[in-house]
Amino acid sequence: MSNDVVLTAALRSNLLSLQSTQGLIDTTQYRLSTGRKVNSALDNPQSFFAAQALNNRASDLTRLLDGIGQSIQVIKAADNGITALTRLVEQADSVAKAARDALAAGQAEAKVTGSRDLRNIDDLTAMPGIANGDILTFTLTAEDGTAVNIGAYGAASAATASVTINTNDSIQELIAEINNLNIDDGAGQALGDRAFEASLDDKGQLVIKTLNGGDFRLQFVSAAATDADDLALAADLGMGDVSRLIPDGAANSNNVEFSSLSDVALISFPLYNSGTGEVAQASSTLNLVQDASGNNLFANIDNVADQFRISIDGGAVQNIDLFDGTNPISIQAFVDRINANSSLNTKIEASYDDTTGELRIEPVDGTVKSVEVGVRGDDAVQANFGFGLTDLVAGAGGEELRETVRLAAAAGQLAQLEKDFDNLRDQIDLLVNDTGYRGTNLLKGDNLLTVFNEDRSSSLTTEGVTFTASGLGMDAANFSRISSTEETLTQVRDALNTVRDFGNTLANDLSIIQTRQDYSKNLINTLTEGSDKLTVADQNEEGAKLLALQTRQQLGVTALSLASQSQQSILRLFG
Fold this sequence. Notes:
This protein is α+β, with helices and mostly antiparallel strands. Helix content is 40%, strand content 18%. The chain contains 9 helices and 24 strands. Strands 2, 3, 5, 9, 10, 11, 16, 17, 20 and 22 form a 10-stranded mixed beta sheet that branches. It has a 3-stranded antiparallel beta sheet with strand order 1-8-7. A hairpin with a 5-residue loop joins strand 7 and strand 8. 37% of the residues are buried.
């Protein structure tokens, strides 16, 4: 073209050299600014893609590290739960042990303690409520419920034994007479083991207990034979709080008495279906129930006025209807009617075991000390479950018969311990519910999957458990007998071992996950370092290159200037 600038070969050569140097300077400056010698596939395809693969894996592992960290937190939350759960189960074990000890101590004997200081009483008849000729009548039954003949040492024994208070008798003489009552030796003479132990405690209160197990009844019979005098006699001996004025099944006739059990619950005879010899089922009606000897336990239940009577600690009497308008009710209906009575169900609970045939009424309130049971109806209604020491048969004229039954000393304590144990069960459930972390609860059956590599071929599954009270096999407390209490203790100890074993499993899994976490961190560093070796520029080297290129550029400019001097000489001709 006519306007093209004509460059000499020397100028063009120097220009190309300068352009090449500038390109190298630009590349070196870019490497210095980015810190990398390979910034794209155009720089070095092999190194670029190899570094990219290493960085991608490092990035994947970095994301997995977040999951690993969260898995550690889930396990830590579960471990905190296990620590607290262990303490709760250990506390439940302590409660069950206390129940066993209380049961062993309180069930070994029937025992009653008065409420009056009788120390230094040299003449009991000098007290306003006690008179010459007043009588204390004792009845004793063995642990299996059979009557025991008792009597004064050297005298004939009978189903009942009486101690008479005479003028000038001291409290110590009364105690000696009670302690002189012996169990029948089998030959009609009371020459065997002592039946009772009477004494004054450190407060001077009269204490009477059985020495060979079983239950006893004490009736207060005043010489005047009036209800008021009977009550006064019991009160002056300190037994006014435990004795009750109750109908005795005869017209307009009452007794002042109490029955003391060696058990912490009212427990019936084993109930059998009539004529079969088989344990009665809960659906069996009362008129078809017998004892083990084939004796009918219920009779004349044929009127809506036929009722079983229950009261707690001398409180208001509650009626349990025994007739549904057509037939006698079933065993289960009897249990349900007691448990549905709002005046009773906060104090006692009824249950029936159709394996043993035993119907139980036991306290659920630690304040319960005595239960009064009785029967009444339009004729001689019989409802003899075997509670207490009295055969419950109403008088022929429909007169009411009741018995006041004082439970073993441990009954109230055991009821409270049952509440404490069941409260611990509830707290165990609440604790387990609160142990989750971000929706995963290892103590409530959730599993935890922890992934260690990018293709998920390496992982660890921490299997969850169900550590609610039911999941641990801890049933609701039943401290009414040694066998059920021992069963509770076994359940608690098994639960404790299970919790501790799972704690060890969690610790092992946590150690594995933490080890893999450290390994992944180190591997990420290794991958990143390998990628950098392929792409990161050596700053010292690139700086030296830039300096050399800048020097070359300056030399190139000088060379270009020299190459153009011949043309500059021509320019002088026109000067």
